[in-house]
Amino acid sequence: MIRKLEHALVTADDIIPGDVILCYSPDMREARSGRESGYSHAAICCERGSILESSGGGVRLTNAAALLDEYGHVAVLRNTKAWDGNRLSLLSKFADASLGKQFNLSGLKEYDAQREEALSTQLRRIKGYFDNDEAPEARPSSRLFCSELVVSAFIETGVIGKSAAPAFRPCTFLPQDIAIDLIFGFFIGYILPYPGYRIPEDDLFINYALDENFMKSV
Questions:
Q1: What domains sit in the chain, N to C, each tagged with a CATH number?
Q2: How far apart are CA 82 and CA 70, in angstroms?
């Protein structure tokens, strides 16, 4: 089923640096854990009008219009308390340093095994960090898939602090994992590809989108 939206619509001009962009494709919905929602691509706004993403061609800059040419609609997440001037400067530097890196196809294929391993060793890694027995996580690799890029940006800019980094391994996040973890922001609205486009009845954010009081409080 589909539903006509009355609330929670934003435009490309509303996106600000630090916003996380999640892209929906009905063809990418799967029964496997982490893929049920159809949100199959994640990116981050690094400056007005410019969005950093990692796709098949590697890490590059794009914009909302280009993403809407590839996907059904996009959802925008915003953490208003995370991005001060210093972190935005670090985000810009992260984007510059990441451009041209290759897409981590092998890492994406190994997501399920990596996530299972990360969850089973999480407490040991956290304890190791605080006991100073283990070094902090390595800096971002030369290959990044889309959500791995976004999580790396949050770590490299300090939004996710060093003490939390052992629990946030970038290679263990898919776009849907980002969608449900509030460190990456609250849903603020959809960008639609054209007037009259209908959001699926069971979209991950639909309850927020149709709650007028929620939108007034954002």
A1: 2-217 (3.90.1720)
A2: 29
